TrEMBL record:
Binding partners and assembly: Monomer.
Name of protein: Shikimate kinase
Lineage: Bacteria, Pseudomonadati, Pseudomonadota, Gammaproteobacteria, Chromatiales
The UniProt record lists the keyword Acyltransferase: no
Family: Belongs to the shikimate kinase family.
Localization per Swiss-Prot or TrEMBL: Cytoplasm
Binding sites annotated in the UniProt record for substrate: 41, 65, 87, 144
Gene (UniProt): aroK
Length: 179
């Protein structure tokens, strides 16, 4: 991002692992920063009329990544927006390049324990349909943490404060980042 673009909330991308709160916190933080909120997965679901699970079933992960990359390209053209991405959006170099070039990228961190607790009942994430969720999440973290790190302008750890307080802290961190 150039210095001229570095205004609060011009375009923010939240990245990070499943269950880090990109969707939940993103919506609140967008409100606090008076930005439009958009969730990449929700956009894919509403534009296809299919759930993420069904897309994975029919087209495989590769098909989903294709749709995700195309959706991100569209979303990166909006202004005054906070975009919550899916946890694997950082996998494609083109996505990383797009997000770094067009916005402020925030890595929402979460421990595997937090992920497991928060996603205990979740059945909507195809990559979590594994017999050993901890192992799966650890493998994903080993693969992806270096990518989150590489693309992020800011890393944010939520701690155990509860969603409303964490959203306020994240909004504050973003304001300070842009000052
Ligand atoms: N900081 C947090 N503290 C407690 N619960 C959280 C936090 N962030 C998210 N959650 C909960 O975890 C679940 C998954 O959050 P979600 O926003 O869908 O994560 P992501 O979009 O990163 O996968 C939701 O039930 C949400 O309420
Ligand atoms: O980590 C991933 O590869 C994925 C994360 C999901 O989004 P959240 O990170 O919002 O759960 C969703 O995009 C899809 O199930 C794949
Ligand atoms: Mg999400």
């Amino acid at each position: 991002m150039s210095a001229d673009d570095a205004r609060p909330g011009h375009r923010i991308f939240l990245v990070g692992p499943m269950g880090s709160g990109k969707t939940t916190l993103g919506r609140r933080v967008a409100d606090l920063l008076e930005l439009e909120f958009v969730d990449c997965d929700d956009e894919i679901e509403s534009s296809t009329g299919a759930s993420i699970n069904l897309i994975f079933d029919i087209e495989g992960e590769a098909g989903f990544r294709d749709r995700e990359a195309r959706m991100l390209e569209c979303l990166a053209q909006r202004d005054n927006v906070l975009v919550s991405t899916g946890g694997g959006a950082v996998l494609l170099p083109a996505n990383r390049e797009l997000m770094s070039r067009t916005g402020t990228v925030v890595w929402l961190k979460a421990t595997v324990d937090q992920q497991i607790r928060r996603l205990e009942l979740d059945r909507s994430r195809p990559l979590l349909q594994a017999p050993d969720r901890r192992k799966r999440l650890e493998e994903l973290a080993a693969q992806r943490d270096p990518l989150y790190e590489a693309v992020a302008d800011l890393a944010f750890t939520s701690g155990g404060r509860g969603v409303p307080l964490v959203a306020q802290a994240l909004a504050k961190a973003l304001r300070e980042h842009h000052d």
